[in-house]
Protein: Citrate transporter
Organism: Natrialba aegyptia DSM 13077
Amino acid sequence: MAASAPLVQETATQPELTTDMIVVFGVVVLALVFFLTERLPVDVTAILLIVILVVLEPWTGIDPATGISGFANEATITVLAMLILSGGISRTGIVQELGRRMAAFAGTSVRKQLFATVAATSPVSGVLNNTPVVALLVPVVTDVANRGNTSPSKLLIPLSYASQVGGMLTLIGTSTNILASDVSARLGTTYPELHRFSMFEFTRLGLIVALVGGLYLIFVSHYLLPERVPPRADYLAEYAVSDYVADVAVVPGSPLVDGTVGDATEILGPDIDIVQVVRDRSRDRDREAGADSDSTPGRAVAPRQDLPLTEGDILVVRTNRDAITELADIPGVEPVARPQSVAGLSTDADAGILTELVISLDSRLVGDRLDPEAFRDEFSAAVLGLRSRGELVSERIVGKRLDVGDTLLVQAPPETLDRLARRGDMIVAREPPQPDYRTDKAPIAVAIMVGVVAVATLEFYPILIAALAGVVAMVVTGVLEPNELYDAVEWDIIFLLAGVIPLGIALEQTGSAAYLASLVVSTADFLPTLVVLWLFYIVTGLITEVISNNASVVLLLPVAAAAAAGIGSNPFAFVLAVTFAASTAFLGPIGYQTNLFVYGPGGYRFGDYFRVGAPLQLILSVVTVLGIAFFWGV
C-alpha cells in the first residue's frame, strides 16, 4: 500500500501513480456519479461508500474500524448536536418572530423587503444551522411578499443565499464548517500550519463576505430575478387545478349510496382521488335519519375513508385529463356542470386552507411514489397539484416519485396545517393560522445557545462537549421533548458525513490527494499564487454544484493543503478558500439544500439561480481570496 506522501516545497517530481491511487480515484468517480445522478438517496450512497472502501481494503487502506469511524467522528456528533439545538430554538418561535418584526416596516418596497430578509437571515444563520433557518423563514418571507404585493420569487432565492453567507460568520453556522475544522485538525499532523478552527476563527472575513453578499442581494438581485409567481398567487390558477378537478354527483340508485369514500375510491379507480365531499345540509335535516347524517359536515376536505355517502352528494375529484373525460361512463355518478372557475372546490379558510408543502431534505417521503389516497388518510390533506424541479406536473401525479424540493399543492383544515407545520420533514409555505410555539421557553433556549457558544469560544471544553451539554439542557428545561430530539436531526446529513469521512482518509493515506495536488502545483510555474488560490475556490464551487458541500470539502481539503505546501504557500489559506467556496453554492438548486427549499415556492427555473448566482459567486470569490491573503497571507 502506498504511504502518505504529502508534497513539500522542495518536491520537483510528480508522485508516481499507483494501483492504490487508481482504485481510490475509481471510488471517488463512483461517488460523484451517484451524487450527481441521485440514483440512490444520499444517505444510502454514503453507506455504499463505506462498504466499497472496506471491501477494497487492500488498496484503499480502510479497515472496518476506519470505515465506520465517521459515525463516531467529532464533526459528525457535533453536527448532530447542533441540529438538535437549532431544533430547540425553532420550537420557541424566536426565528419566526424575528422575521416578522424585521419585515414589519418593509411595506411595498422590494428593497426594504430584501433588507428585512437579509437582516433577519444572515446573523441568525451564523449561530444556528442555516438549513432549518431557511425552512422556518420560507413561510414568513412568502407572507411578507404577499402583504407587500411583491412576487415571492423576488425574495426566496435571496433568502437562501443570505443564509449561506451568514453561515460563514462562525464555526457552527454550517455543518460544512464543522467538518472542515475536523479535516483541518487531522491534516495538522502533516502540515503544522493547520489546526482545528476556533469559534470565531474566520468571523472577520465572514463579516465582509456577508456584508458584500447582502448588499448585492438587496440592491441587485431583484433586477435579475423574474416574477415566476405573481403576488398573492392564485394557487388554483398557478397549478392549473381547473384542468384536473371535476365534480360528480351520486345519483339515485348508485352503488355509492350508503357506501363510504373508501368504497367510492375503489369504484372510481386508482387514478381518481376524492378531495372533497359536498352535502346539502338542509336535505339531511329533512331525512328521517337526520341525526346521523347531520353529524357529517356540509363540506368535508380530505375526507376520511370511512365517511358515509348519500344520494345527491357531490364528490370533488382530482385526476388527469383523460380520466376526467371518462367520468361520464362510470355507473352511479354523473358529472356536474361547473360555472367558470373551480366552483366545487371551496377555498374558504374554514373549509380548508390551500398551501404548498415542500419536501425537505430528511423527509421520509423522499423516494416514495405519491399516493394521494394514502397521503389524505395519513395527513388529512388533499393533494391537488405537484411541482417537481420547479416544473408543474401537468398530467398524472399518482405514482410520481417524490424528491427533495418537490412541492405539493394541498388543501387541509386549519388544525391539520398546524400539525403539518410542526413536522420536521415538510416545509409549509405559509404560516399556520394557530402556530404552536413554546414562547415561554424562548429565554431559556437563547441562554442555552449563548452558553454553548461561550464555553466553546473560551475553550473551557471542546465544541462537541459544549453542544452535547446544550442538548441535555434543552431536554431538562423542557425546551424540547425527548421524542423531538430525533425529529430535529437531518439524518441524511449525518450518514453523508459518516460515509465521506473514510473516503477522505483513503485519499490521504494512499497519496491520491498528493498526486492531484501535484497537478495543481504544475500550474504555479506560470500562475501567481493568488491566482492558484482563486482557482481552488472556483473549482470547489463548481464541484459543490454537482455533489454535496460536505463531500466537496472532504475531497478537496487534502488536495488544497498538499498543493499549498508544494508551491511553498500557506496551507491554511487554501483550506479556508475551499471551506468558504463549499459553503456558498449559488449556481443552481442542487448544490445546497436551502436552494432546493425555495425551488417550488418561488416557481423558479434552473437558470434563475445561475442568473443571480453567477455574478454573486464571482464577486465573493474575489472578495474571499483577497480577504484571505490580507488576513492570513498566502
Summary: DSSP finds 29 helices and ten strands in the chain. The radius of gyration is 27 Å. Confidence is low (pLDDT under 50) at residues 1-12, 284-297, 339-343.
